[in-house]
Each structure stands twice: as C-alpha cells, then as structure tokens.
Amino acid sequence: MVAAEVEQKKTILNLYNSGITPDIIALQMDITQNEVKQVIENEISEEKRKKINAQRMSDAPLLSKLYLDAVVNLDSAIKNAQIRMWKALKAKSEINDISMEETQNVLGNYAESKVNLVILNIDLVESTKLSMTLPVDKLATIIRAFTQEMSLMIEVYGGYVLKYVGDAILAFFIASSSDNSSSLLYLPCINAINCACSMIKVIQQGINPILDQYDYPELNVRIGIDVGENAVVQYGWDTHMHKNGKVILKKPHLDILGYTISIAAKMTVLAKPGQIIIGQLVYNILEDKQKSAFRLLSISSDIWDYVSNYTGKTYSLYGSL
Fold it and tell me: Residue ranges of the domains in the chain?
C-alpha cells in the first residue's frame, strides 16, 4: 500500500473514531461513501465499534438517565450539525437566518402580564480565550454556527430563543399563565432539561469532532435552568423601514423581567464545563429517577446567597453528575 493510501486510511479511521459519519467523511475528503465504508469494515471489528459507541455514551451520563423524548431524532441532529459545521468552516457557507419574530408573537400573548416560564441559559466556557487565539472571521464563523445549532435544539424541544447575549443564549419554555401545579410545570421543565442534554451531546459529537479536524479548540458549555413567574413587558418598538425611508411595519418589542430569569443566568456561571445546574423548584418537580442524575451543590454564602420566596432559606441548586 502506497504512502498516500496509508495516510488516507488513517484519516478515515481517525474521523470515524471521532464520531463523524461515513457520508460526512466522504464529503470532507472528496471520495465515495463506498470507499469510506470499505476501509471501516476492513479495519474495525464489530466489537471495536461497540466499544467506541459505549465510550461515546459514557461521555454523557446524564443523557442516559434523563433523555425521554422519542420524538427528537438526536442522531440526525448530530449528523446535520456535522454537515453544517463542516460547510461553515470549509466552504464558508452562510448560516441560516434566525428570526425572533415567533418569539415576539408568543410573548405578545402575555404582554403586560405575568406568566410561569422555564428559563434556560447556555453560554460558552472560556470564550474570551477563543477570541484571543482565533482570527475574527474564524471566531465569528464558530460563534454563528454554535448559535444556530443551539437555537435549533431549543426550537425542537418547544422552546423559544429570547435573546443572544455575546456568547450566551437565553431561552424560555412556556409553563402556565397562572397555575403553579407540579403536573403543569413538569413537561416544560423536563423538555428544558432534555434540551440541555441534547445541546451538550450535539456539541460533543456534532460540532467538536469537526473543529478537531481543523485544529480549532473544542467548545464547552454550561447551562442553568430554573422555573418561576416572570413579567412580559414592552421596551419600545421594532420598526421596519422601506428602502425609501418610510415606516412599513411597527411592532412592540417585548422582553421578560423577573427573579427567575436573573437566577438562571447567575447560576450558569457556577456550572462546570459540560454541566447543567437546575434550581430547587425544577428539582422538586422531577421524578425520583430523574433526581438521581443531580446532586445538591454545596456553595458558600459568599458566592450564592439568593433566598427562596417559598422557604425563606437559601435557594438550593443541583448540578448534573
């Protein structure tokens, strides 16, 4: 076997072991899928493939305990993330437009009133380091791709992106306008947690293997989730102008205020890379098996001193194992 064939074979196996599917490998190396599959079938036994898959699952223990939603095709989401990430880095393809119109329409139903929401906050770990080590165009490409993939996961699980704040995404899942019953809060809470689990897996198995091939640093995230009552308020207007300068559409710009949205953002910074932190109210709603995927965090009062409105004691936080 000539040196070029040996190098090609090595590259194919490295990509495959990184979790990249044969069709993506073929696309990236400009060869046929049959050529890729032949190399894999000849060199990797069924036992080794099972070992690789088992290792992948061990990287996300929380997911194996909590992932309940059979409607979401996570394998497909990972594959599509790989395709889009690869195209964004190599072909400089445009990132799909992310519209906030639906979010504003939904909030319009609760304008100037209060509503129970599950708040999810996700941000990149050490994004400052990325900004210092990568050229601006490459940094922008990675951040846009990250934002798109996470926004798609939020949408799939029935959530809405509220806003983008630098390297962070703030999202919400509608619970109820007035009822605090655990039965009504359970579904949006578990959807938010499952969404967070899937986000981490898409990053680990979809985005990072592609970044690795281009010698870019891997992405790590931390996520905070809490539930509670929030006020939907109007901040001015979104004005859409015609090219001749005339106003063609004027709609109220709505945002969310409340203890919950503040808590979710602040608890996120306490999470380790790849970890999900949930508030006491979310934890209380979970079933026993789901609770076992989290542990109570011991945090100094100098760092965390928020008091629960229900107990009058420090609001407890729980981190994924």
Answer: 59-320
State pLDDT tens for residues 131-164: 888 888 888 888 988 999 999 999 999 999 999 9
The CATH code of domain 59-320 reads 3.30.70.1230
At 177-214, the pLDDT tens digits run 555 666 678 989 999 999 999 999 999 999 999 999 88
Q: What is the 3-state secondary structure (H, E, C) of the chain?
A: CCHHHHHHHHHHHHHHHCCCCHHHHHHHHCCCHHHHHHHHHHHCCHHHHHHHHHHHHHCCHHHHHHCCCCCCCHHHHHHHHHHHHHHHHHCCCCCCCCCCHHHHHHHHCCCCEEEEEEEEEEEECCHHHHHHHCCHHHHHHHHHHHHHHHHHHHHHCCCEEEEEECCEEEEEEEEECCCCCHHHHHHHHHHHHHHHHHHHHHHHHHHHHHHHHCCCCCCCEEEEEEEEEEEEEEEEEEEEECCCCCEEEEEEEEEEECHHHHHHHHHHCCCCCCCEEEEHHHHHHCCHHHHCCEEECCCCCCCCCCECCCCCCECCEEEEC
Q: What is the pTM of this model?
A: 0.81
